[in-house]
Amino acid sequence: LPNARFYLTQGAACRLGERRVLSFTETDPFTPEQIERVVIDVSVATGKPIRRLTEADYRSTELGKLLLKRGQDVVTLNRTVTDSLIAKIEAGMRSQTSTRFLHTEPHHDDIMLGYLPSVVRNIREHSNYHHFATMTSGFTAVTNSYVLSVCRMLQRALATRREELRLLLDSGYFQEERYRDHDVWVYLDGIAANSLELQEEGTTRRFFRDLVTVFEAIDLDDIEHRNEELINYFETQYPGKKDLPYIQRLKGMCREWESACLWGYFGWNDQSVEHLRLGFYQGEIFTEEPTIARDAVPVLDLLSKVRPDVVTVAFDPEGSGPDTHYKVMQAVAEGLRIYEEKSGRTDLTVVGYRNIWYRFHPSEANVYVPVSLNMLTLQHSSFMHTYISQRDASFPSYEHDGPFPELAQRIQVEQYNTLSTCLGREFFYEHPSALIRATRGFVFLREMSLAEFGRHSRELRRRAENR
Questions:
Q1: Which of 394, 401, 397 is nearest to 140 (CA)?
Q2: Which residues of the chain have pLDDT under 70?
Q3: What is the pLDDT of residue 303?
Q4: What's residue 30's pLDDT?
Q5: Domain segments of the chain: what residues?
Q6: Within 171-322, where are the H helices?
Q7: Distances (CA, A) of 409 to 48, 112, 287, 327, 445
Q8: 3-class secondary structure, 134
Q9: What's the number of CA atoms in the CB half-sphere (13 Å) around residue 365?
Q10: Does domain 98-136+276-465 have CATH number 1.20.1260?
């Protein structure tokens, strides 16, 4: 068409070589991040450690030529970027002490797929406090077939353990919040004992509790009748059809149960695991935009309750990953802005993470968290034992046909390989720290001040929404 044009986001345009060269040409002076990106890319392209890069290596790429044209000295470039990468690894080796963490995630498995090794490292320091908050109910990722399997599990329990369930119901077990952790303990005992029977008992207890909550039923026969109705519903509905509100709520509760089990792995109980169920997430094809009253105020209330020193947030660029990630980031950013105004606190650190949907270039991250084989095993095992509904995800990644933790592991290993190229394998094999010698993967994070995070979220909103 004459005069036709199309637009790309920065995230999509990053793979257009000529466009990147033009963007760099128009920048003067180069930022340290831009310089670092070019040097890392030259190292990866040539397969040589940064310290061994020559002028000829830089001239082999268009962006490398640009650096040299601006008068950059090769020896200085190599030393500066190498030192920067080592400093980022050292930052990832350190644990915080006496720190209050608020970990936020758009969906129930985003934290564990994004930066679980960092969480575990800081959990091991017992002076720290951790609070985990999932911002949406995540019901769209729960299939009818999965909930049907849980309904049938409860049906079997009602047939074989009816009197036990009646006694628990009559004692107030399913009505009182203080017993919610008991469901988790039974399930985790089942994992430890390799007992499917105990795991099913924990799952059916929680699902029974959810039915009591949703249907406000306190009679065993009534619960059984409701469960039979659900079985009929899930046997007859076609996949993808928009569910009734109470079905959406039940599906969300299934995901919340999985989250409770994951953090129960590490000793955190129901009081430390929050589910905000932000209102913009309603199961529509095009979800609504977040609003202050509906979506930012619950975040503000959570911040006021937890009083964190560190807040983590899914930090995907525009046009990448699920739409929910972007909208949750805007809700968190607005909540933080109001919290800063009301509390006067400006000392919070915001940690941005990415997971299987989008990755940091090493130059974009400023903390590299080492990941050992032991941690990779824990990451995979804990996911497969707790996020049962996501073993065969209804929204899989285009990059990998299999469970999400396998893709998370692949990404972390790829990031290790990139740093191994940049620093040389001997940096890891001969390092004085056993932690680094054991490293076979890396999680990339970006630590920011409140002001920096606010600037980023406003700029992202301007680009995405033309505001």
A1: 394
A2: 9-12, 14, 283-288, 317-322, 393-396, 464-467
A3: 98
A4: 86
A5: 10-90, 98-136+276-465, 144-247
A6: 180-192, 196-215, 220-236, 245-265, 297-306
A7: 24, 11, 30, 26, 16
A8: strand
A9: 29
A10: no
